[in-house]
Design a protein that fits this description.
Chain lengths: ~270, ~300
């Protein structure tokens, strides 16, 4: 336990020292505030409060930003240490590989959670102050923060996976960019293309929704949208999410971090520094 | 229970089709300093990584005391200095050493250790601002953590200036005096010559020599070089009388095996006034190393 804490606190120190924590928080805050103010226009016409509109915009933002920030922080975790020559030294100490990875994960996740909570929280507070908020929209905000952290956890672990599989930090960075592109952009484009080809056949009605929630980024979106009528209304995305059982998207988003971490752990086990 | 701190028995390591280590056996007793020499790619670093349990063995067995490589006991009792190590640039020397001490699970006098390796003034500066030599010293400081039973040093003097090298060997001597078995992989032959008890030479993954410097010299039978300076123009005369070769207008060089050295000296001394100077060079580690590493004589 002390070893886990030693790794986690050192990683946290590094994140504070190299200003990553500050930068991530500022980025989250700026984007969230910009979207809240820019997105406040349609409040009257749809008939939901400003916080709901803000949460809707921030959901769309978080799909892109949470994986990106998570990968930026995690790609270096193993490949960078290997490149510096400090990985073999670290592994010659009594800490186990699982302990090392878990310690880094805890620190990185805490940093992400901090940035998300401050960014989304501040934007939400401002939206609520100016445009009003109800119990439902506050729940939606809390859900957004919680699911963003889960989504971040998925991509932190995927980042460790590519970091363990890469020979250098540069290669890990490249792979991470590819990973982001596939999960956040290309996967959806592919599904969209398939739906267009299929029209409203069997694929669109029964397979497509499941394929969609199998991707953590889409599961994040579906969970946030389908759980709140207001958000769904404000986003205009109702269709696909409704054909799935309510547990599908949460289950996917909760299983993904565990699965990705197990994969990263397995890949790290095979690393010979 | 074995008396050796480190026991390596018939270790073999294959990487794909190439054999990196072939039937290597080596023992290091507590307090002994052993140099591990060899070309780049001779298998020195690989051997160290197998001792650390970072690289699995194809065959053979390694014991650190009585523990298996990579086991919790082995990791706690082994200290390691990687070749050209660097640390996270954002941390300070003190913070980095604190992490290692906590991982080792013991309280350590961190400022004292950093003082010992000459980083007392720099301990609160970021490692990013350290020179290569300072990073190497920091690496050495973590070797000293927690009185290790075995210390594995991979090229410990790389990047160090001559004064720092002396400091380093003073620290290594101190480690050995406290009962740590020290294995030093190195290229720096002249330093190793004076600073170790025993020398092992690896050639393409095979151990070709493992003995004290004196015994290795005797076994190799390398010639001692006598350089004689003759007065005036007697050089030709001297060369003829001693059977040496004339190398310039005043000097003659004689190569003789260890057992014939005294005889040659007596003959030269008997020549009286003609000789103005004698310089004797016994075979150096460099010659020995060349002998064992290139020709592969066993």
């Amino acid at each position: 336990m002390t070893r886990f804490l030693a790794i986690a606190s050192t990683e946290m120190l590094i994140l504070r020292r190299n200003r990553w924590l500050l930068m991530a928080t500022v980025i989250m805050l700026l984007f969230a505030l910009a979207l809240t103010f820019a997105g406040s226009a349609p409040t009257g016409s749809v008939g939901v409060d400003m916080l709901t509109v803000s949460v809707t915009s921030m959901t769309t933002l978080s799909v892109y930003l949470a994986p990106l920030l998570a990968l930026m922080i995690s790609f270096d975790a193993i490949a960078g240490e290997a490149e510096r020559g400090s990985l073999s030294l670290l592994l010659s100490y009594p800490a186990g590989r699982g302990e090392i990875l878990l310690g880094k994960f805890a620190a990185h996740l805490a940093a992400l959670a901090f940035a998300m909570t401050i960014g989304f929280g501040a934007a939400g507070a401002i939206a609520a102050w100016f445009g009003g908020a109800g119990a439902e929209s506050l729940t939606a905000l809390a859900r957004l923060i919680g699911t963003s952290i889960l989504l971040g956890a998925v991509f932190l672990a995927l980042g460790y996976l590519v970091s363990a599989l890469s020979r250098s930090a540069t290669a890990a960075a490249g792979l991470s960019a590819g990973l982001w592109l596939v999960f956040v952009v290309l996967y959806d484009l592919g599904l969209l293309g398939a739906v267009v080809m299929d029209g409203s056949g069997d694929f669109t009605r029964s397979i497509f929704p499941w394929l969609m929630v199998a991707n953590p980024a889409d599961a994040f979106r579906v969970w946030n949208i389908s759980a709140s009528d207001g958000v769904a209304m404000a986003s205009g995305m109702v269709g696909a999410a409704q054909t799935l059982p309510a547990w599908a998207a949460p289950l996917s988003l909760i299983l993904w971090p565990l699965l990705a971490f197990a994969l990263a752990r397995a890949a790290f086990k095979r690393v010979e520094p | 229970m074995t008396d050796n701190a480190l026991t390596i028995d018939n270790v073999r390591k294959d990487r794909g089709k190439t054999t990196v280590l072939d039937d290597v056996s080596l023992r290091v007793a507590p307090g002994e300093r052993v140099a591990l020499l060899g070309h780049n790619g001779a298998g020195k670093s690989t051997l160290i990584k197998t001792i650390l349990g970072l690289t699995p063995l194809t065959d053979g067995q390694i014991r650190i005391g009585d523990a298996k490589p990579g086991s919790a006991v082995a990791r706690r009792t082994t200290a390691y200095l990687p070749e050209a190590v660097s640390f996270h640039p954002a941390l300070t020397g003190r913070e980095q050493l604190q992490l290692f001490a906590r991982l080792d699970g013991q309280k350590a006098d961190i400022p004292g250790l950093l003082d010992r390796v000459g980083l007392g003034d720099a301990m609160d500066r970021r490692i990013g601002a350290y020179s290569k030599g300072m990073r190497q010293r920091l690496g050495l400081a973590q070797v000293l953590l927690g009185n290790p039973k075995v210390a594995l040093l991979d090229e410990p003097t790389s990047g160090l200036d001559p004064i720092s090298r002396q400091d380093l060997y003073a620290i290594i001597d101190e480690l050995a005096a406290n009962g740590t078995a020290v294995l030093i992989a190195s290229h720096a032959l002249t330093e190793v010559e004076a600073q170790t008890d025993r020398i092992a030479i690896l050639r393409k993954g095979i151990k070709v020599a493992d003995d004290t410097l004196e015994n290795l010299s005797a076994q190799a039978g390398l010639p001692t070089k006598l350089r004689i300076r003759a007065s005036g123009d007697h050089a030709d005369e001297v060369a003829e009388a001693t059977g040496g070769t004339r190398i310039n207008c005043a000097s003659v060089e004689i190569l003789c095996t260890p057992d014939r050295k005294m005889e040659a000296l007596r003959r030269v001394a008997a020549m009286g006034e003609v000789i103005t100077d004698i310089e004797m060079t016994p075979p150096r580690l460099e010659d020995l190393y060349r002998h064992y590493a290139k020709e592969g004589a066993q």
